[in-house]
Amino acid sequence: MKLRGLYAITDSQLLAGKFLAYVEAALDGGVTLLQYRDKSSDEARRLREAEKLRELCSRYKTQLIINDDAELAARLGVGVHLGQTDGPLTPARALLGSKAIIGSTCHSQIELAEQAAKEGASYVAFGRFFNSSTKPGAPAATLEMLAQARARLQLPICVIGGITLENAEPLVAHGADLLAVVHGLFGADSTQEVTRRARAFNDLLKISV
Ligand SMILES: Cc1ncc(COP(=O)(O)OP(=O)(O)O)c(N)n1
Ligand SMILES: Cc1nc(C(=O)O)sc1CCOP(=O)(O)O
Ligand SMILES: [Mg+2]
Questions:
Q1: Which residues in 23-60 are b (16+ Cβ under 10 Å) and which e?
Q2: ipTM of this complex
Q3: CATH number of the structural domain spanning residue 30
Q4: At residue 98, what are phi and psi to the nearest 5 degrees?
Q5: 111 with 134: CB under 8 angstroms?
Q6: Among 12, 50, 11, 5, which Cα is nearest to 31's?
Q7: Which domain holds residue 60?
Q8: Ligand 2 center to 108 CA (angstroms)
Q9: Which of 100, 126, 175, 199 has the highest Cβ tally under 10 A?
Q10: How far apart are CA 180 and CA 141, in angstroms?
């Protein structure tokens, strides 16, 4: 399966009190990958929430990805996203198996992406492309770099950082396959608006759900 579409990422603060309702609303609008991103060290809560997401994702035929934690991903039998300081890809691939989806943060460096491809990544992520209130300190990436990456890489390319319905189109035009979004999807006033945004992101990628 070619990885292409909306990549919804959860945020524990933004989704406090409406976590499952908003995630389900996004899944209803169409989500290719859902990342569980929780930077806390509350392992029991992380396991509980990730299990609930796995159940929801299985109902909507969406792939669940765990941020940072290959051990938790292995325990649940789902994919993982690893940043440059989250541990090496090769042992994660050995742990999760050949079919698991494994993503790698490459900031704005195509060389990191080529290395990740050699080590078995399923997709590479570049960003941040716009100002992000979720991760303000992330290093910046450009459309020029994205176009070069598209020309050099065979792997699906994910883009992240401050993406909204208003600014996403040039990213798709420059070769992005996966639009990874927190605030531009979940920073909505209602579940109906989350679903509408998810559908609109899919429309940008010309994906019918
Ligand atoms: C799809 C996607 N791309 C990039 C990141 C960032 O990963 P990382 O640099 O490890 O930062 P944290 O998210 O762990 O704070 C991501 N999570 N997902
Ligand atoms: C988790 C993350 N990683 C980034 C990177 O550039 O590596 S930007 C980011 C935050 C994405 O959230 P939002 O869509 O709200 O900006
Ligand atoms: Mg990380």
A1: bbbbbbbbbbbbbbbbeeeeeeebeebbeebbebbeee
A2: 0.99
A3: 3.20.20.70
A4: -70, -25
A5: no
A6: 5
A7: 5-205
A8: 13
A9: 126
A10: 14
Span from the CA of 38 to the centroid of ligand 2 (angstroms):
13
The pair phi, psi for residue 7, each rounded to 5°, is -115, 100
Domain count, the chain: 1
| Paired strand residues for 81 | 67, 103
Separation between Cα atoms, residue 62 and residue 32, nearest integer Å:
6
When pLDDT is averaged across residues 101-128 and rounded to a whole number, the result is: 98
Contacts of 91 (CB under 8 A, 6+ apart): 70
Whether the pTM exceeds 0.95: the reply is: yes
Helices (H), ranges, the chain: 19-29, 43-60, 70-76, 89-96, 110-118, 143-152, 169-173, 183-186, 191-204
Give yes or no for residue 68 CB within 6 A of ligand 1: yes
Q: Is 5 annotated as a binding residue?
A: no
Helix (H, G, I), strand (E, B) or coil at 145: helix
Q: Is the CB of 62 under 6 A from ligand 1?
A: no
